[in-house]
Amino acid sequence: MVPRGDEERAPATLHDTFDGALAAAGLLLVAAGDGLWLVGLPEGPVHQADAEPGFVQDMNEGPVTAALRPRVPALRRLIPVADATLARQAMALIDDEGKTLVRVAVCAVSTGHGSATVLTLSPLRGYDRPHARLRAALDPLGDPEAALTALRPPAMRYTAKPPVDIAADMPARKAATLLARTHLSVARANERGIVADHDTEFLHDYRVNLRKVRSVVSLFTGVWSEKDTTRLKDRFRALMAPTGPLRDLDVHLLDRDRYMEMVPEALRPGIVALFDDFAKERAAAQAALARHLESDDYAREAAALEALLASAKRLKPGPAADVPVAPFAQDLIWSRYRKVCKRAARIDDATPDEEVHALRIHCKKLRYLMEFFAPVFGPSEVKPLVKALKGLQDTLGAFNDAAVQQDALRAVLERLPRRGAARIEIATSIGALLTVLAQRQAEGRARVASSFAAFDSPETRAGFADLFHRGKEAA
């Protein structure tokens, strides 16, 4: 290959979502002095002069924004991940007569943490074979995602669902400690993003992973002593509690457009006023949580919990501590599966809401257990069972969301001033929302029976029995 023209070098900043959506797609988003460059697309580097990285839906329209839209989750903000030097060079693959066979755009990026080079090949008409040979020669040379991830500082190399290597013969206490330690680490990786308020997914991931830690502590019965188990339950519950108000407000604000669609146009000004109030409350809640996460008390408690989980031996063993993971997991999953089936079969139009909510919690616990132990029983075997369970969870989740939203809106009504035009406007709109949400809750309840019937298919029953019951009997 030979160069075409001079190399261009410039200081730049790499942007990506915190969870590396672009790196996973083999793409680099580089902000340089002349705008944004998106590198790694099949058609070659794309440039846009008038764009600032952020939420893609808020960026100016242009070729970079258009290319990012299907590749970046709407709830994730593009944030700076590393300062870099960008070098661009046009090159060509030529034959013995100097004819250009393939045009090559070379983009080399280096940071203080690593370097990567992205080549974009452009075939010329009539030269498909040289293009195919060059691509075949280059494809085995590297893993694009690994190379692009290596450009980021270690603190920015985030995986929301890291693999946890659990073996079938591993003692249950060791597996529990490993799972709890891993998910606590993932939760803590989100702290800076919550404080900076980059996007709502930081808090969401933080809470999901703390919930998984709490599930390990509460569901892995007997792996630790009763005293240590109770102590862990209390401490992790206290660690998570301050995040509730902000997450509730985030959920409201993310539902703004949906709420607007629920009411007639004449009532929408009241929804606007309501969400203006939510936004003010959210700002205060976010500031309060940021102060908490940056406090010495929080730092000490989080570090102390990490130290407790640093080794399986730091917590006293319970009666099931040394039980091998495989039979231990089978007992847990089969028992929880039977509870789900029995509770779901009893639900009808007269079932109290509390029992429907309890079923949702049991389904969530069953899903966590199946995901925790998927490496033991085979991800390909567990995946279809999780997919079947997810259908039931989605129905129960819609029912629960409608109920929770009604409770939250009633609480807002109670806090409104007793008099004033603004109160009347907001209260009228909330009344309309409550009517629609009550109807959706009723529709959700009506779908529970059919969703359970779909989950309780012969194939799913056989799948659960084969993995978590018959296999144990054979052993």
From TrEMBL:
Give the matching Pfam families: CHAD
Give the SMART domains listed for this entry: CHAD
Q: Which residues cross the membrane?
A: none
Protein name listed in UniProt: Metal-binding protein
- CHAD domain span: 169-461
